[in-house]
Fold this protein.
Amino acid sequence: MAKSPPPDLDATDRRILRTLQRDGRMPLVALAEAVGLSATPCQRRLKRLEEAGVIQGYAARLDAGALGYAITAFVQVALVSHAEDVVERFHKALAQRPEIVAAFTMSGEMDYLLQVVAPDMAAFGEFAMKTLLRMPGVKETRSSFVLEVLKPPGQFPV
């Protein structure tokens, strides 16, 4: 499926995006004021950015540690095969696991990179041994653990 070309973003669109990345709960009137527009044109631009898929949604950023997830791991996964049924079953299994907070298909030695959270090392070990390694098609995994977050996922340069 071909992706549509990115929309033309002017300086005002970019100001809207930068402002919303810092505060996605900002009321429309405050957003309009912050970017130098009145409310109606700002709302039209916001709607256009949403419809174009540039803005995919609004969500709160949560602190994993404050929620009791002391361990964050990045796990590389290689599959035994790239056959369609193997990949599809693996994708379905991934979607069922709440401790996998992000998953990416990768190029290189490994097929996937997963971001996994756990309350402690014992819980991560149990997940890795009893769940991840038993997922359909998993050949091998390699885990790396976050020691310190220097720059959390955040804003795109716009």
Observations:
- The chain has two domains: 11-51, 65-145.
- The domain at 11-51 is CATH 1.10.10.10 (Arc Repressor Mutant, subunit A).
- The radius of gyration is 20 Å.
- Helices lie at 11-22, 28-35, 39-51, 84-95, 121-130.
